[in-house]
Design a protein that fits this description.
The chain is α/β, with parallel strands linked by helices. It has helices spanning 30-42, 58-67, 96-110, 129-141, 155-167, 191-198, 232-238, 244-259, 264-273, 288-294, 304-314, and strands at residues 3-5, 12-14, 16-18, 47-49, 76-81, 115-120, 145-151, 173-177, 201-204, 278-283.
Length: 315
């Protein structure tokens, strides 16, 4: 495994990290989920990601149970807050009340005294940003959170957060978690330049475009049994990637992967990691074998000629 700094902090995280969205806490049997987490750890992955909203806390319980097998200082753990966790009017968002309550609830589910990284899972237009940042800063001062980040915020929102933090001497956000893959490159235009300017790193999710960049989905064929596309909930999220244009690109990209004697998934992850502002690529795994296969991407170096061929295909 190879490691990169989390933004400009002194913490180093594995170039590939393991997430629990659409996998742990119900989608995958707990025993298999724990085996996948243990396999990832044994392969050098030290960065694990979850959220309070994943299966309404069930994913946090599985991740926490699995990680409690290891020494706490040996891994970096992230969770998130924003999405509804109940039916009450205050059971959502980034108010101080919800942030504080959910931080404590997450720690209880995880069976941990602190998390290394706490994300604002989305931007909350109904809460003053300084209220949210102050709550995050207080959690850091209490020792319950070490660093804070955001997920899928716009450049303007990130810039405002930096300005407020600097003005009020609050802890800055150190990382952003956006979607990023060969089919979704929106962060390249503004987010990455802004982040580089202010020392913010990217921890990207869906590097395989919900599995489309593994080549397992074929045009005109039903989704494989047990795949995300076959799941009624997850399938709605994957649908955006399942179109004729992308299937054609996957076919061409697969040719390049075969030339390099690697899998299409390894090519796609290596392509994401070519971006220096990316700290880590989040993968999901329902089986330990998937983790073993995907971590090989850290040993893949894509030279300029290959990157140019890929760019031609994606264009």
């Amino acid at each position: 495994m190879k490691y990169r700094r989390l933004g400009t902090t002194g913490v180093k995280v594995s170039e590939i990290s393991l997430g629990s969205w659409l996998t742990y806490g119900g989608y995958v049997e707990n025993e298999n989920a724990i085996k996948s987490i243990h396999t990832a750890y044994d392969l050098g992955i030290n960065f694990f990601d979850t959220s309070n909203v994943y299966r309404r806390g069930e994913a946090e319980k599985v991740v926490g149970e699995a990680l409690n097998s290891f020494s706490r200082e040996s891994y970096v753990l992230a969770t998130k807050v924003f999405w509804p966790m109940g039916e009450g009017v205050n059971d959502r968002g980034l108010s101080r009340k919800h942030v504080m309550e959910q931080a404590n609830a997450s720690l209880k589910r995880l069976q941990h005294e602190y998390v290394d990284l706490y994300y604002a899972h989305r931007f909350d237009p109904e809460t003053p940003l300084d209220e949210t940042l102050r709550a995050f800063d207080d959690l850091i001062n209490q020792g319950k959170v070490l660093y804070v980040g955001v997920s899928e915020w716009t450049p303007a929102q990130v810039a405002e957060a930096i300005h407020i933090a600097d003005k009020k001497l609050l802890d800055r956000i150190v990382v952003n978690q956006p979607v990023y893959n060969m089919f979704n490159r929106y962060i390249e235009k503004e987010i990455i330049p802004l982040s580089e300017m202010h020392g913010i790193g990217q921890v990207v999710f869906s590097p395989l475009a919900q599995g489309v960049l593994t080549g397992k989905y074929k045009q005109g064929e039903p989704a494989p049994a047990g795949s995300r596309a076959a799941d009624p909930t997850a399938g709605q999220m994957i649908a955006r990637y399942l179109n004729e244009d992308n299937f054609a690109k996957v076919a061409e990209l697969d040719k390049i992967a075969k030339e390099l004697n690697i899998s299409l998934a390894q090519l796609a992850i290596a392509w994401v990691l070519r971006e220096k502002n990316v700290c880590s690529a989040l993968i999901g795994a329902s089986r330990p074998e998937q983790v073993k296969e995907n971590v090989k991407a850290v040993d893949v170096t894509l030279d300029a000629d290959i990157l140019e061929k890929i760019e031609d295909i994606l264009a």
